[in-house]
Task: inverse folding
């Protein structure tokens, strides 16, 4: 198999490059787009890494004297919900910030669908099919829910700003198409009833769901969620967890989920990596992780996390 088969880097502006759920991937298929040429693709990667949607290898990150991440390896398989857990300061957000291009690693490689994108500018990451939500709410409170969700498509807009302002036919068609996509995802997440309300007026739980809608609207191949359930009530957490699972099942979205609620992680994730002081101390199924003495130690080592340790044991 040629290395190009795993390196389906998208030509810029390709709107829906992602296969819908249930489509069988043809490992022999080769898509060589113009952006693919010159990409750093190795042909001799081990199987798991070669087929991974996301493959992080040997990634380290230092801030002055602080080592936020040390030699992290992590693979995420197509359609997987991959949990990343660990005490505060373990390096979880830093890892997502690297994958979404906000931080440059001090060492190591990050690949999406086999293509090393360390040199891809952040503003072009959406074209690789990466979307994320942030740990703190990042909505435009004065805009409606629908307007916020349409913002998730801005990186894909083709017609120039002049065409938009003049209302040229191509720009109008694009506006209508984007609105239809936003309406579809708003309906999918059961937000149609509040679609025309200013996002800032909604409950915290609904606002987090709008964030998820905005991240999903461009149908990312890889969705990064940084503590999407923090601050939610138990009911809101269950609702959002169900929508995350449904997004994976319906759209085939591959998801990396950072979450503190161990019960949610255990119920939702296929595999879980555990970070502690910037190192990966365990990686496996929720069941394996919960039984790992290193993981239990890491959680017991943080006073306020003692309850979570109990939850680990109870949740499995
Ligand atoms: N921009 C930054 N500048 C300096 N230090 C940082 C920065 N971002 C993160 N860190 C440090 O890196 C470590 C990991 O932080 P973070 O990734 O936010 O952890 P987590 O998300 O697991 O709580 C912490 O020691 C934090 O202080
Ligand atoms: Mg964090």
Result:
């Amino acid at each position: 198999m040629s290395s190009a088969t795993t390196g389906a880097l998208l030509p810029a502006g390709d709107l829906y490059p992602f296969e819908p759920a249930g489509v069988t991937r043809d490992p022999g298929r080769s898509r060589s787009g113009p952006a693919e040429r010159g990409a750093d693709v190795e042909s001799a990667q081990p199987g798991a890494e070669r087929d991974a949607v996301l493959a992080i290898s040997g990634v380290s990150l230092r801030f002055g004297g602080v080592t936020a991440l040390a030699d992290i390896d992590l693979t995420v398989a197509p359609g997987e919900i991959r949990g990343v857990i660990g005490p505060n300061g373990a390096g979880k957000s830093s890892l997502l910030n690297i994958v979404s291009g906000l931080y440059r690693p001090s060492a190591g490689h990050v690949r999406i669908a086999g293509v090393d994108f360390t040199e891809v500018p952040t503003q072009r990451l959406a074209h690789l099919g990466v979307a994320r939500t942030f740990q703190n709410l990042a909505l435009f409170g004065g805009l409606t829910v629908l307007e916020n969700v349409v913002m998730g498509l801005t990186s894909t807009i083709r017609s120039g700003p002049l065409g938009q302002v003049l209302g040229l036919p191509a720009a109008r068609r694009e506006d209508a198409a984007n609105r239809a996509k936003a309406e579809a995802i708003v309906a999918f997440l059961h937000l149609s009833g509040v679609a025309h309300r200013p996002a800032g007026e909604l409950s915290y739980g609904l606002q987090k769901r709008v964030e998820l809608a905005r991240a999903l609207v461009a149908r990312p191949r890889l969705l990064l969620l940084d503590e999407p359930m923090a601050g939610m009530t138990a009911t809101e957490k269950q609702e959002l967890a169900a929508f995350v699972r449904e997004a994976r099942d319906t759209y085939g979205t591959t998801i990396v989920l950072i979450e503190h609620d161990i019960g949610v992680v255990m119920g939702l994730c296929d595999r879980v990596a555990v970070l502690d002081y910037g190192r990966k101390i365990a990686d496996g199924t929720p069941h394996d992780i919960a039984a790992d003495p290193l993981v239990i130690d890491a959680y017991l080592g943080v006073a306020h996390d003692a309850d979570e340790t109990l939850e680990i044991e109870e949740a499995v």
About this structure: The pocket of magnesium ion (ligand 2) is lined by residues 92-93, 135 (CB under 6 Å).
